[in-house]
Amino acid sequence: GKEQVLAKIWERSRSKEVDQEQIAHAMADPEIQNILHDPQINMFLKTMQENPAEAQKAMMADSKLQEAVSKLMAAGIIRTG
Fold it and tell me: Per residue in 40-52, pLDDT tens?
């Protein structure tokens, strides 16, 4: 069920392999494009690269950010591995 899907998403997000087809498909998705054009998300992504602990704290405090990051992870745009 849902747990299996979430486990698979988590597994893929930690993988070192980049699925170019998955990323191309995600980048064509209007919802993903909207998320990536959001200034708050862009600032978060920059913070994530520079200061992961601070980014984690910001994400925990903002449900909109949590939802956006979850969608980007599911789409393969954000990888944690």
Answer: 999 999 998 899 8
